[in-house]
Amino acid sequence: MKKKTEKRNDSVMILGQEYKVKKTVRSLFIFEKMADKPFEVKTMLDNYMFLYSVLLACNPDNVLKWEDFLDAIDEDASIIDRMNELLSDRNELDLLLNESKGEEGEVKKK
Q1: What burial class does residue 87 get, using C-beta atoms within 10 Å of its C-beta: 0-12 exposed, 13-18 middle, 19+ buried?
Q2: What's the DSSP call for residue 40?
Q3: How many helices (H) and strands (E) does the chain have?
Q4: Spatial contact of 68 and 34, defined as CB atoms under 8 Å apart
Q5: pLDDT in tens, 83-100
């Protein structure tokens, strides 16, 4: 009996493929290389390039072309919403974890 493939809670579906979404240092490097400037999201193009960089960094075995990414977003704007939601959730988790650490990086006891 084959296992049913479940959609991961850290992914987005684009053109029938599942892509992991997570902010990583590699995604920032990819953005800087593509944009030829230091990482900073100021424009809509910057935002889309960053989201595309996240896909490239987290899915090296399932590369999506830039044009295909843009076409997919044109067809389904919820892709951007889902990716932003996943990245926002991760930022909130990181903030909570950092708040629970003391000055020396140790977890505070309650």
Answers
A1: middle
A2: -
A3: 4, 2
A4: no
A5: 999 998 665 545 555 565
Tokens found for residue 86? 């996943």
CA gap 13, 40 in Å, rounded: 26
CA–CA gap between residue 30 and residue 51 (Å, rounded): 11
The label of the residue with tokens 């309650």 reads 110
> What global pTM score does this model have?
0.76
Q: CA-to-CA distance for 106 and 88, rounded, in angstroms?
A: 25
CB distance 12 to 19 below 8 Å? yes
**Backbone phi, then psi, for 31, in 5-degree steps?**
-60, -50
Q: 9 pLDDT band (50/70/90 cuts)?
A: confident
Burial (Cβ within 10 Å: 0-12, 13-18, ≥19) of residue 64 = middle
